[in-house]
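Hi all, long-time lurker, first post. I run a small reading group and we've been trying to get comfortable going from sequence to structure in the token notation. Rather than ask abstract questions, I figured I'd post a concrete chain and ask someone more experienced to write out its structure so we can walk through it together at our next meeting. Sequence below, copied exactly:
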Amino acid sequence: MASPFCLVLHTHLPMVIHHGRWPFGSDWLCEAAFECYLPLLEAAHHLVADGVSPKWTINLSPVLIEQLAAPDFQKELSFYYENVRRACAESGEHFAREGRKDLVELARFWEEFYERMWEMHRRIGGDIPGTFADLQRSGDIEIITCAATHGYLPLLSRDESIHLQLRTAAETHRRHFGVAPRGIWLPECGYRPRYQWTPPTGRDAGRRRAIRPGLEELLAEHGFAYFVADSHVVAAGAPVFPYRDYVPRPDVGREPATDTPPVDARSPYVPYRVASRGGTGGAVAFIRDPRTALQVWSREHGYPGDYAYLEFHKKHFPGGLRLWRITDDSGDLGRKAPYVPAAAAGQVRLHAAHFVELVRSILAGAAAEGPALVCSPYDAELFGHWWYEGPQWLEQVARAMAGAGVVRMTLGEALEAVPPRATIALPEGSWGEGGDHRVWLNRDTEWTWDRVYSAEAEWVEHLLRPEPGGGERRRVLAQATRELLLLQASDWQFLITTGAARDYAERRVAEHYADFKRLAEMLHVLRSEHPLSPDDTEVLVRLERADFCFADLEPAWALPADGAR
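-- Answer (accepted) --
Happy to help. Here is the structure in token form:
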């Protein structure tokens, strides 16, 4: 039986349309479309045209799909394209006046890149989700889903919230792709087993709640067959942090020992059925391979840090073009040399060949005890955005694996080829720093959870209480539910902790909480059988337009009796 390689790409951005433009807002989404999503589709089309099936498993988060499918996204993308075209032209003219022919050529390089991506966008009719769907229908990729707004499920205080995140995800996926998703990406690979949960903050902090089901139980209830877990939860080893470039590590300079797991560790090279404590098995967990993770995630030890590759952090202003290569490890942006695309392309081929040999060696060792697999999950935005050459590297890896006879499968296919070897209990954890919740719950973010927990409690009260108000009440409750979902996005805590966009994230938490409270007040008005005021009606219309995601949302999806499929 073949032992496959499974590449998993986690693709997500929070709701940014109608919430600013630059530097954080719709430009963030447009940048990802040009630098990541369209290049990934281009690479996939190149492979398929040459008879090589990518066999990628791609998670498209529901809130991202809703934005990519929105008419306003097309307007924003067109506006963004005109700006970058102008930046390329003006930068070229600037460097021509300075006699920098090398930088003039690089400005032209970027102009050709954006023109090529825009032409592809035109060729697919502007339909990025639909083009991924076409690749799924042809069997070349598998699309899985994620919690609706990337809520950090282990820390949500109500099971109703988790049901809502999962059911909304499933329904949104079905609406866009015509089929129910078999697999799901747990945001931040965050997992919580069954136990008596205690709120870590808020007014009920320290008060024990009733036994709450493990996430694997809730996943199975909503029809999800599998998810991805981090290797440290089964290997008893140190986690390989995907965000260590942005979150300070207590062990800087010392890499985790991933090459030789402890003797008593469970192998990360087989899937496991996850058992609830004292219960039967639920969904199946695929385990992230630590060796291939380190090879790609690490800027210090992995491919993206190669000196020939494009330097992400140095940009030319005005315009924001990146024109320099990494050059060295000094961190001195003033010492960066101009980028040489041909040299970078040569390194892409070398690194792809090296990666294929690494996977072959891992599979050879792991398959000695029976059918095995290598599961390598990454944030999709790493490829093309943070690592410009990433999509080229993915294409070269697929070609090299096909030539070398390395079997590639989607997770759904791998589940049939390599069935779970055992049923195990997973400990709580994530793929963030420390392998726990510290990136999302710390002194800087506790206040955000206070607001989430307060909103959850009030929302459940309205959800469970039959009240007058008719269609207008349903409309207000639906929008309050959208605001709660957006408030729950794990992106806000991540951006606060890393400092990447702290002010923006804090403002978004405050705004969604305030909007939720305003809508909750409207529900109280309707309960008293009074009509909404003109001001309230205007606010409702504004919020429905601004936070338009999940148009078919039913708040009752949060109730287990209605939520199970």
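A couple of things your group might point at:
Residues 459 and 465 are 10 Å apart (CA to CA).
The chain has two domains: 5-435, 446-563.
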